[in-house]
UniProtKB/TrEMBL annotation:
InterPro entries: UPF0435
Protein name: UPF0435 protein
Pfam assignment, any one: DUF1128
């Protein structure tokens, strides 16, 4: 997948991968359609951080979920 392209499909892919990695119980609340292409770079930063970590602490998961919540379109 070419994540260098700022597309809704890439956002959907990254959000789904983040939800899987974080094992989000309320993953349905984090729909990829809630994010704008305008925040693509920030979402990609979160995605890359999550994918490079083998384990995440509870506080890291909480911080990442909080950041994704901040990035959601209002």
């Amino acid at each position: 997948m070419d994540l260098s392209q700022k597309t809704a499909e890439n956002i959907e892919y990254m959000i789904e991968q983040i939800k899987t990695k974080l094992r989000m119980a309320s993953g349905a609340a984090m729909s990829s359609t809630a994010f704008s292409v305008d925040q693509y770079e920030d979402i990609r930063d979160v995605y890359e951080l999550v994918m490079t970590k083998s384990n995440l602490s509870i506080s890291e998961v909480e911080a990442l979920v909080s950041e994704l919540g901040r990035l959601r379109s209002k």
